[in-house]
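New to this. Please check this record:
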Amino acid sequence: MTRRRTPEPAGHAPGAGRQLPSSVWALPPVVVLAAVFLYPLALVVRQSLSPDSGGTSLQPYADVFASSAFREALWTTVWLAVAATAGCLVLGFVLALVIAFVPFPGGKAVARFIDVFLSFPSFLITLALLFVYGTVGMANGLWTDVTGAPSAPFQFLTTPWGVLLAEVTYFTPFVMRPLLAAFSQLDTAQLEVASSLGARPVRIVRWVILPEALPALAAGGALVLVMCLNEFGIVLFTGAKGVTTLPMLVYSKAILESDYPAACVVAVVNIAISVGLYGLYRVVSRRAGA
């Protein structure tokens, strides 16, 4: 006699009881993350606690914190990042408003170009500015040809203002992209109602558009701030001699001076600032309901 199979309950797939727990599926990404990021980070922290004299000590931190070069680099990094973020927020908000709400030929092409711009490396934008405003750039060459003056008037790219201009130029699209996405979801009926009630464009932007764009503006600003704190290529390619940021200080300590414990100390400080800002952004955005 053949035995009859007992029918399985409805909704119970074969082998469902042998499914792996979700923690097992999360294990491979965690292992990869630990191998490519956490382990090198642990080595950096370990090296920062290992002075050249041997052993484990906080002396490298004391030496770095006591140096004027570190304090100047920290201040330069902070004010450049804050100023660049403020410039990107203002410029990005205005440009996103124009692209999203002011009809003009080629508006869609400009919006697509922003997506392409995000893939450009930072040093490429800096090189473009050097070709325009550098010592032998087009602006100085045109000035010399027109006026006949032997000296070049545009020398600001090798100053902190040149670094600030390059950072604002490069990072503004990182603010515009989330803003354009937020503007595309804005109900145009609100704008039409406000306009029919006699509200002027500035009032519409202040009371209708800006509240809807605040989460995207905060996200873009937070991203730009963290990226500016860790920017290396722009400062290096502008050739600004008097501008030393924390990433530049890591480079000079490790490559030029071969002082690896001091370089790791500066790197740990830079990482701590970036992670702290990210954590602060998450707390503030969560409390604001963004």
Notes: The radius of gyration is 27 Å. The CA atoms of residues 98 and 104 lie 9 Å apart. The chain has a mean pLDDT of 83. The longest helix spans residues 68-101.
